[in-house]
Specification:
By secondary structure, this protein is an all-alpha fold. The protein has one domain (2-496). It has 21 helices and two strands. It has a two-stranded antiparallel sheet. Helix 6 (130-148) runs antiparallel to helix 11 (238-262), helix 7 (154-185) runs antiparallel to helix 9 (205-221) and helix 13 (296-317) crosses helix 17 (387-401). The relative contact order is 0.11.
């Protein structure tokens, strides 16, 4: 099993998707099968992370074609941790869907599409080939196109058109950029690309290619060019929004991190400089949106944008402290944003609306939901000893070490705006005066079962708390993940066996 371990997390979701398509009409069997495969993915991802920790970077050359000639799956500690986090999010989303998704949507191949989306996400983290990265992006996006329109509501179809159009444009730009890259250096294997770009020197056409990739991945991540995101992420059911929030933008962020640390790291004054100011604009505009809106979904969506900007800023610092902050905060944010939308979905279900003006008095009816939401908000803001504290502290220190004082201050200010925007939800929904609007029953019966839905949410919350309290235990894994990012030779030697 060890020889094929790098591809098993992807294979388990692919197999799940195929089986679930065949079982589609048997709702109970589909639910159980989906959860079983999602749990198996978590177990395999744990084994993969342990193997990488003990043995170093793992590679798998498909069909015996050795790198750089064939397709290579490459698993360093960063990829292993991201795959593990994605598998946890996948399992939590499946269990949450049991309690919140109506049967009509479930029978439109929802669980199969969810696993196919995880195929794309997992493959993006595992691949060592930039064209294969494009392929995995497309698998992920095609699945997301179908998920965003499940239910067939008018708003979903309207936003889906915008979402698909923008991603088709960005994907076209991506494949054209890959073609130029191959024409310039004659390879697409990431480790080999790193060597060839170093030999050629990052100038001229290679600098243009680096800028184009930054635009492509920025579109995918919602970095500065995020104007498609608030509308597209506000129309699907909460279970789908949660997995989008936790995974889709983070794949774009991962691609930026991988490309800028492995391939285009030779002229940081251009690539990292552009990234820094894109990130600063993202934080500022995200904070403005979060503090302005009075709709729960919109406020939470703009908090995704703030986090993407913060991670991009940390990556732009180019120092070890900032790189540690990127890894810590990226893992934290994947879990925290998923949890935020799981809980936010329950708040909206309790009110029967997403408008804050029509909410109030929930603390007497669902106090556990209120306190879980507050702790999640504190974790996102970075209150010690919760999970966001270590990552955010490292990001701020990295910014100060890089003497990026203006952007560091902007990062702190945007975090404050994020806190105030989510505190607004907590105070209005849970402590505000009750409204006269008719609300759904919270007894645990009907289309949303609060008792069942709170179980995966509680599990994620415990992980966030453990992530903060166990930061010292996690440090060796984060340190190992940063080695391949700070020293490309580690990654190259593992893949090309030099």
């Amino acid at each position: 099993m060890n020889d094929n371990l790098p591809v098993l997390p992807l294979f388990i979701h692919l197999l799940a998707g195929i089986i679930l398509v065949l079982l589609n009409r048997r709702t109970l069997l589909v639910r159980l099968t989906s959860a079983l495969f999602a749990a198996a993915s978590v177990l395999i991802s744990l084994l993969l992370a342990r193997a990488v920790h003990e043995r170093g970077i793992l590679t798998l050359d498909m069909s015996g074609w050795t790198a750089p000639l064939g397709i290579t799956f490459t698993v360093d500690m960063l990829a292993a941790l991201l795959v593990l986090t994605a598998s946890i999010i996948g399992l939590a989303s499946v269990l949450y869907s049991w309690a919140t998704l109506d049967r009509a949507r479930e029978q439109h191949y929802y669980y199969a599409l969810l696993h196919f989306l995880l195929v794309g996400v997992t493959g993006s983290f595992l691949t060592g080939d930039i064209f294969n990265l494009f392929v995995c992006f497309e698998v992920m996006l095609i699945s997301s196109y179908a998920l965003i329109v499940i239910g067939g509501e008018k708003a979903q179809l309207r936003e889906a058109i915008k979402y698909i159009l923008l991603n088709v444009i960005s994907s076209t730009l991506f494949v054209v950029t890959i073609a130029y890259l191959y024409a310039a250096v004659g390879t697409l294997n990431m480790a080999h690309l790193s060597e060839r770009v170093a030999e050629a020197g990052q100038a001229g056409i290679l600098t243009v290619i680096a800028a184009l990739l930054l635009i492509v991945f920025g579109l995918k991540a919602g970095l500065f060019l995020f104007y498609w995101l608030p509308g597209s992420y506000s129309v699907p059911p909460p279970a789908i929004i949660a997995i989008f929030a936790g995974l889709l933008t983070k794949v774009g962020v991962y691609a930026i991190v991988r490309v800028l640390t492995l391939i285009f790291y030779h002229d940081p004054s251009i690539t990292h400089g552009v990234l820094a100011w894109m990130s600063g604009a993202t934080m500022a505009l995200g904070a403005l949106g979060a503090i302005t809106y009075r709709d729960v979904n919109r406020i939470m969506i703009y908090n995704i944008i703030i986090s993407v900007g913060l991670i991009g800023f940390a990556q732009s610092t180019g120092n070890a402290t900032g790189q540690y902050g990127v890894i810590y905060y990226l893992l934290h944010d994947m879990l925290a944003k998923t949890l935020l939308f799981l809980l936010g979905g329950l708040i909206i279900a309790a009110a029967g609306t997403g408008r804050l003006a029509k909410m109030g008095g929930f603390m007497r009816e669902v106090p556990l939901l209120g306190w879980m939401f507050l702790v999640t908000v504190l974790a996102i803001v970075g209150v010690p000893p919760l999970s966001g504290f270590v990552g955010k502290l490292l990001i701020i220190r990295g910014g100060l070490e890089a003497k990026q004082y203006l952007l560091t201050g902007l990062g702190l200010l945007s975090s404050l705006m994020a806190f105030l925007s989510m505190l607004k939800i907590f105070m209005r929904a849970f402590w505000g005066a009750e409204t006269d609007a008719e609300r759904p029953s919270l007894s645990g019966h009907g289309p949303v079962s609060f008792r069942v839905a709170l179980l995966p949410s509680a599990a994620l919350l415990l992980l966030l708390i453990g992530f903060g309290l166990g930061a010292e235990w996690l440090y060796p894994y984060i340190e190992q993940a940063s080695q391949a990012l700070m020293d490309p030779r580690v990654y190259i030697d593992a893949v090309l066996k030099e």
